[in-house]
Amino acid sequence: VCGCCGRCRPRYKRLVDNIFPEDPKDGLVKSDMEKLTFFAVSAPEKLDRIGEYLAERLSRDVVRHRYGYVVIAMEALDQLLMACHSQSIKPFVESFLHMVAKLLESKEPDLQVLGTNSFVKFANIEEDTPSYHRRYDFFVSQFSAMCHSTHEDTETRTRIRVAGIRGLQGVVRKTVNDELQAIIWEPQHMDKLIPSMLFNMQDNDDLD
Hints:
Order of helices and strands: HHHHHHHHHHH
Protein name: Protein EFR3 A isoform X2
Number of domains: 2
Family: Belongs to the EFR3 family.
Number of strands: 0
Number of helices: 11
Radius of gyration: 18 Å
Shape: globular
Helix content: over 70%
């Protein structure tokens, strides 16, 4: 890409690109992440575009199995979510949850756990204005399925199940924090939540 084309790219894209090192093993470029965060806080109206572009990059890296870059993208999303609290965060949250969902749908246990960890962090954030239209049906279903993991490796199976339990706890916490508890108590959710918890309690008893 020529220098001119690079300069013609929107600033938010250049800032996002700069947080990714040439070698993913080097991790998030912290100095450039600070610049991206400052930009996002100073120009919250750009948050949705930042989220969409990060989601675009992450989706591409998941497909290409470039998981080191996936981890970096999620770390950036987590940090932006923690730093930005404004009316403009709602579209960003939608991009964030879309990415979490993509990781949870992955067949890679490490990505499922990564997505769960990000969701749990999100669940602990109190948004300035709760989004009453947001539904968590997918997350209840996905975390419940993880609670029933039958992965052939015992240690991996346990990791996935524990992540599923943490995810369900996060969904409950988020809906209560956002005063949406009426939604979580709906039968279609409770019919998945309770059996998932009991299944793992029984499994632990069997191991004892």
